[in-house]
Automatic annotation (TrEMBL), chains A, B:
<keyword id="KW-0805">Transcription regulation</keyword>
<dbReference type="InterPro" id="IPR036390">
    <property type="entry name" value="WH_DNA-bd_sf"/>
</dbReference>
<keyword id="KW-0804">Transcription</keyword>
<protein>
    <submittedName>
        <fullName>LysR family transcriptional regulator</fullName>
    </submittedName>
</protein>
<dbReference type="InterPro" id="IPR000847">
    <property type="entry name" value="LysR_HTH_N"/>
</dbReference>
<dbReference type="GO" id="GO:0003677">
    <property type="term" value="F:DNA binding"/>
</dbReference>
<dbReference type="GO" id="GO:0003700">
    <property type="term" value="F:DNA-binding transcription factor activity"/>
</dbReference>
<feature type="region of interest" description="Disordered">
    <location>
        <begin position="184"/>
        <end position="205"/>
    </location>
</feature>
<comment type="similarity">
    <text>Belongs to the LysR transcriptional regulatory family.</text>
</comment>
<dbReference type="Pfam" id="PF00126">
    <property type="entry name" value="HTH_1"/>
</dbReference>
<feature type="domain" description="HTH lysR-type">
    <location>
        <begin position="4"/>
        <end position="61"/>
    </location>
</feature>
<dbReference type="InterPro" id="IPR036388">
    <property type="entry name" value="WH-like_DNA-bd_sf"/>
</dbReference>
<dbReference type="InterPro" id="IPR005119">
    <property type="entry name" value="LysR_subst-bd"/>
</dbReference>
<keyword id="KW-0238">DNA-binding</keyword>
<dbReference type="Pfam" id="PF03466">
    <property type="entry name" value="LysR_substrate"/>
</dbReference>
<dbReference type="GO" id="GO:0032993">
    <property type="term" value="C:protein-DNA complex"/>
</dbReference>
Length: 285, 285
DNA sequence: GGAGGCGATACCCAAGAGGTATCGCCGCCG
DNA sequence: CGGCGGCGATACCTCTTGGGTATCGCCTCC
């Protein structure tokens, strides 16, 4: 009884996601029969029924759902191994660098200070910035595309990452300067969620669709910035986000919004000295 | 160029650990030439020199060292996927259970309270205890042999695990009742590290060897307990450890020893409701 | 300078991954 | 009710490739 190969895990993930052998095979660039056989062999090897087959398609069993989760994590770890090794080999060729992931549109001020401070450290290497969508930093770290990331509690999950917290700030609502609420010293969440004419914008979900609601759909921060500057939307954001937006806006503290903490995170077993230096520098800011 | 397979990672880890193709091949139950070829192919696939070959043996390159770390983590994730799926399939057969790992010899009182409280929860499943050596809990979680673990900061690393802290306690030194220091209300670490006739016992390192020093070698808690009870060794331990040892001992607070916190930890992407219930129960104790 | 340990090469074989054709099953629709 | 179409499984073949044996070339240490 040989051990499980990543090929089998990739096959299983494809089938489990498509819930259709034909489409999964197509996605994998292979024919359907060998895929069916590979999955059957995997089930025999694990003594587990992973899929319930009907002539109308396929559904996941409990064990299948567990394997889907675990296989994704394992495959992430494998591609991380591959990528990090490739990058380590480049380092040997004389181009050492760290990749720092951060949500696009996040506090440029903090990042600039960090990069500055780190660059003046002894033995510092060049830092490549990798800007990503909200919540993607974790995956970038797990798959080895990034070495360190800045993320923001409570929005981003720190699950499975080591981290150090850098700063904490309250949240404000950004409104056009002339808005009736603009004079208030503070507001509550409920005061601003359903403002007439100033709906909260809608972000795409993980599946690419948008939640229902009246707000305008936004895909990135540029769109958001434009909408807010035009007075077509309001947004609750960390205080530091204010500096990124136009000056014709008022920021009013939202007292009952959760505090936002910025943390620097890295994959658990990182041994890179560059990452350690960067983290140490960040913690001292 | 196809992706990396776990077989190749296993081969590489074997070679990197043995630093000798022949022995690695033997350990893997195969001949040396195909192993050499497999590693060469892996190097080509990653465009990286992983090993420096001399006629006298093999040394790791920088990229090789990175891959060794990453490959171990990835392989752990793969075996975890395998094991958890197997167990999930058993669950479908009607024997649901959670495996709780804990250092052998750790506070039985806390564990008993936890198991009791959890058993009386609705929907609780049976809990299998897995006792292990100090510091092994993390690996058990990562490789899927355990679902939750109790561990103790600052001794155990929480790196890469999600956790909830349960309790904090000071440390005491355990001495024979008649010892000159036994009457003191408190001591400092420096007072008890070099007591004549009461050396600190030595625990095996990760490689199985023992550090140098005068103390007796111990391999498990039974030996330690015996030594302390016989008055042949002193030991600094969390307050709660006291109840496990004989009553002819005095426990004196060590004021400058770090606080010990007991945490319950689980692998990052755990979706098991049983684990969640157990954690919630533990947090309420 | 010869012996022995070590990794690489050359060459062969067989396991097994993958392709094509086809079957059996079951909804669906005319 | 019967044929069509979608889906997964089977049968059978091919050829890639992983693994074995024999051997070489190199270096180190007697």
């Amino acid at each position: 009884m040989v051990a499980v190969e990543t090929r089998e895990l990739r096959y299983f993930v494809a089938v489990a996601e498509e819930l259709n052998f034909g489409r999964a095979a197509q996605r994998l660039g292979m024919a359907q029969p060998p895929l069916s056989r590979a999955i059957a062999q995997l089930e025999r090897r694990l003594d587990a029924t992973l899929l319930e087959r009907t002539s109308r398609g396929v559904t996941l069993t409990g064990a299948g759902a567990v394997l889907l989760d675990e296989a994704r994590a394992a495959l992430d770890a494998v591609v991380a191994a591959e990528r990090r090794t490739r990058r380590a080999a480049e380092v040997a060729d004389g181009r050492p660098a760290v990749v720092l992931a951060s949500k696009a549109g996040a506090s440029t001020e903090l990042i600039a200070k960090l990069l500055d401070a780190y660059a003046s450290e002894p033995n510092s290497v060049s830092v490549d910035m990798l800007l990503c969508g909200p919540g993607e930093q974790g995956r970038l770290l797990r798959t080895g595309r990034a070495d360190v990331a800045l993320l923001h509690r409570p929005f981003d999950s720190l699950s499975g990452l080591d981290h150090e917290t850098l700063s904490t700030e309250g949240q404000v609502v950004l409104l056009p300067a002339g808005h009736p609420l603009a004079g208030r010293p503070q507001v509550r969440t409920s005061d601003v969620t359903d403002l007439p004419g100033l709906p909260q914008p809608r972000w795409p979900r993980a599946d690419g669709g948008y939640p229902d609601g009246p707000g305008p759909k936004v895909r990135d921060h540029a769109q958001l910035q434009q909408l807010v500057s035009l007075g077509r939307a309001s947004v609750i954001a960390p205080e530091s986000a204010r500096t990124n937006l136009g000056h014709d806006l008022t920021a009013i503290p939202v007292v009952d919004a959760p505090q936002v903490t910025t943390v620097i995170a890295w994959p658990p077993h990182s041994r890179s000295v560059a990452v350690a230096d960067l983290v140490r520098t960040a913690a001292r800011l």
